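Ticket 4471: requesting a sanity check on a complex prediction with xanthosine-5'-monophosphate. Repro inputs:
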Amino acid sequence: MLVVDFGAQYAQLIARRVRELQVFSRIVPHRISASEVAAMAPSAIILSGGPKSVHVDGAPTLDPEIYELGVPILGICYGAQLIAQQLGGTVGRGMRGEYGRSVLTRHGTSSLMDDSVPAEHDVWMSHFDAITDVPHGFRCTASTPDAPVAMLEDDERRVFGVQFHPEVVHSPYGMGVLRTFLHDRAGCKPTWKMSSVITDQIERIRSQVGGRRAICGLSGGVDSSVAAALVHRAIGAQLTCVYVDTGLMRKGESEQVVETFRRNMGIELIHVDAGQRFFERLAGVTEPEAKRKAIGELFIRIFEEHTGGITEAGFLVQGTLYPDLIESGGVDGTAEVIKSHHNVGGLPDDMTLELVEPLRDLFKDEVRALGTELGLPDEMVWRQPFPGPGLGVRIIGEVTPERVAVLQEADAIVRAEIAAAGLEREIWQAFAVLPDIRSVGVMGDERTYGHPIIIRAVTSDDAMTADWARLPYDLLERMSQRIINEVPGINRVAYDVTSKPPGTIEWE
Ligand code: XMP
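Returned structure tokens:
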């Protein structure tokens, strides 16, 4: 089914909810024409929410011929108002608007809500204008205090609209509306599941790669790991993975990559132990951008050194996800812009390899489910985001092997305590930072002059904004005690209570 995008953040959530209902969804731009829709032959269309008013100049609309295709349509919020406006109803201007929780009152029977749904219940609203008259052929089946038409339905044409947001958790009967629309009104069969994704992708990868070889750069991160495991399932020994170990990974991480891929999955893995080269290159470099640049450039050089010799390699596997393509305009524009993948360090322009991107239809949570289905361990599948330049950006000042070792120990304690407290999946990222200052302390009878460790833990949905995590005091105390007792040279622990903005998640 298609989700027509009138404002990206709504469209993505709707598309994910539809997939939770086991129906494959694709997001398309609102400029899509009726003939393009017809060519895709969707079983249903959802018009997403979007800008505040259908009355403003240049407000996005839908090709009116799409209504004539006979494909069932559900409009949500802005999408509902557009249906009302384009099919001959009225959208009032300058009304009071509703933002947040509101009470929906049902009027009679509905084709989207069965009789078990209470006559009055909470829904989540976010609108300024409101529909006041339904188009010819429609019934108004619910309202709220400030939305006289909160649901409109035309059973014959199978066109429906809801002013509230059924996709958010604050509308407790919202998923029911989406389910009824998709499964019952549009007849979409709930057949989309991870095992069918695997079967489909294996076939596609085999036909793309044929008898040739493919290379995959592993970073230890979720996306490249899942992509590699999936491609390996499809083409076995034709895949070679390259893991450039910068020496800047977290404690135990490199061993885990090698263990999982080489030993458990039997994947051919070139493990380049390049720590020494990175430390030599980073000696005396203290400025954050210079550090990033040094690490990035050396990474590419080493990756090329080790892949250049793989004869007949025709393909490069990348863990590009659906949101990467949406954000870079790949599904909207004509050119498919490939995100310069942090984890592979930005690929050379003259690269002649063809890309294999088996995750490009999937959202992050789906990639995690797929990883589990493919047998990857939880630590890999639920790994927190980790910057490409690794611990190099969590050490202020010069990056030396000794300082990396100190940070690895402190960081391992932070992560172990977060896991022991059962907070791993609530926290977006939790880690330790090593600044280049010293302060006086006292341990036993001795005066110390040591370094502090800063603990950073944040909650976030997408890393664009973040809030410092309200970790329990006793958890912070355990981390602090363990770090000071177990990590030599550390005599103080501080907790960063800055949100983003104004702070960033990482310290550099
Ligand atoms: P900031 O510090 O900008 O980070 O708030 C936002 C998110 O991006 C991650 N990050 C990186 N990821 N390569 C990456 O792959 C990088 O160079 C990089 N720098 C920051 C950071 O961990 C956070 O999740």
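Notes from triage: The pocket of xanthosine-5'-monophosphate is lined by residues 342-343, 385, 387-389, 429, 463, 500, 504-506 (CB under 6 Å). Leaving this open until the requester confirms.
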